[in-house]
Amino acid sequence: MLVSALFTTINEENIEILVRAFYPRVLQDAVLAPYFIAKLGDDMRADEWEEHLVLLTEFWKFVSLGYDNYTGNPLQPHFHIADLNAEAFSQWLAVFYKTVDTLYAPSVGEYFKQKSNSIAENFMRKLRILQTNS
Looking at the whole model, is its pTM more than 0.90? Predict the structure, then answer.
């Protein structure tokens, strides 16, 4: 995916671009890929992946724009992921930040970074995963 200019606002279209740019990177990441492949497989064209991408797009529209089409419980599935740890959360954030940096102007991207960090901290607290100091 080639984006000629960085987005300077957050809207439905570029949230979908963010989600669809992020997850291929996840599948290329040695730490993260096994978690996602175990649940969704390694073919992003599969129905399971499409469902996940749509769900996460709706989640970020809810978080960023206040849209109410998201009806999931984002924390719940994480309780069923074997061996989920602080390293995985840290790596998820690193890959997410890199994706954000390729798509959004710094002032706008900072919003996604702060939100994702807050969400990750909340998830780790509720999942009782100890944070590591990197």
Answer: yes
CA atoms 66, 72, 73, 76: torsion sign: negative
The DSSP code sequence of 2-63 is --SS-BSS--HHHHHHHHHHHHHHHHH-TTTHHHHHHHH-S-TTSHHHHHHHHHHHHHHHHH
> What pLDDT band is residue 133 in, cutting at 50, 70 and 90?
low
- Name the architecture of domain 12-127: Orthogonal Bundle (1.10)
CA gyration radius for the chain? 14
Domain spans of the chain?
12-127
